[in-house]
Fold this sequence. Notes:
Number of strands of chain A: 11
Oligomer: heterodimer
Order of helices and strands of chain A: EEEEHEHEHEHEEHHEHEH
Number of strands of chain B: 6
Radius of gyration of chain B: 18 Å
Number of helices of chain B: 2
Structural class of chain B: alpha+beta
Helix content of chain B: 25-40%
Largest interface: A-B, 42 and 37 residues
Strand content of chain A: 15-25%
Shape of chain B: elongated
CATH class of one domain in chain B: Alpha Beta
Strand content of chain B: 25-35%
Strand order of the largest sheet of chain A: 2-1-7-6-8-5-9-10-11
Distance between the termini of chain A: 48 Å
Low-confidence stretches of chain A: 1-12, 24-49
Amino acid sequence: MCENCGCGQPDDGITMKKPGHENHDYHEHTHTHIDSDGHEYAHAHEDGHSHEHEHGHSKEILIGQDIMFKNNMLAERNRGYFDAKKIFALNLVSSPGSGKTSLLEKTITDMKNMVTFFVIEGDQQTMNDANRIDATGVPVIQINTGNACHLDAGMIAKAVKMLEVSDSAVLFIENVGNLVCPSLFDLGEAKRVVVISVTEGEDKPIKYPNMFASSDLCIINKTDLLPYVDFSIPKTKEYALRVNHHLEFIELSVKTGEGMDKWYEWIKVKSEE
Amino acid sequence: MHELSIAQNIIEIVEENARIHKLSSVSEVDIELGTMSGVVPEVLEFSLKIAVKDTLLEKARICFQIIQAVARCNKCLKEFIPEDIYTQCPYCEGVYFDIIRGRELQVKSIKVDEF
């Protein structure tokens, strides 16, 4: 039984918390309950797709509904909201351990005097990443997905409302560390950034093609470790371009600061597009 | 494993349509699945078996219509079947192409037995 509200759901439902508010969390449950707040969405047959055919002893009803329709519709709603409020939303994806949180800590520390930042953190468990961002002084929410392996547009819509993201801000969404599932879930972001580190193996892009195919920018992190690993940046770029020839690249080291200026410039330019 | 969320989405779509057509049971659900949709049919089938318990779809047959991916070469504009996302055009050996079919993921139709 859920110990927060006594409902029949297990404790591994989705939760959203601000650092320091562990006892006052917004409690969300599994996907099948996500509409209990009366969240509206279009009926499946709104364009007249659903109609009936008689076939002897069984009747066929044509539906033609995209399975990802609900998430995609919520994502477009998020996108519209961000456009109206001039919020520049970035969805950061990667394997666990590529350095996403460190990248955000350093970016925020260096740019917070010029830019207003808000952050949404996604992990299965713990407030660890949100606490790290909290230490930089910017507003952050931690989504704990429990057993789920990705963030979706519905979670982002709720988190954005809880955060009260202000106009013209940059919103970083750090997705659950996972190079597979998040690729299917549009969150309504302006750009998707895939982060890979030089300790991971240069063939990552072809082993996990969907993630690289759906991203706009690829950050190659930990370049300071290049002398100690067998990693060819040109080879990685070649593999990545094969799965997505529109991909842009930035090589950097969060640890030494090398290349970070290119990332900051990219944020500045893209947020004004 | 995201196939479980996808299974739940399928159930929601079918139940919504069943409500609209006032159906009390569903005998078959036909799903269109592209080979490059990012969803593995066997995993989805397994996830559905678990997720349909106590729903309108509990006794329904789940049928997958697999849609083969088709790519169009950016260089010679010919269409071909890509072996995977890291492949070459068999006509001109170009390495850049667009997937024009094969990412489908939709509930095509449902069937109801009539007596």
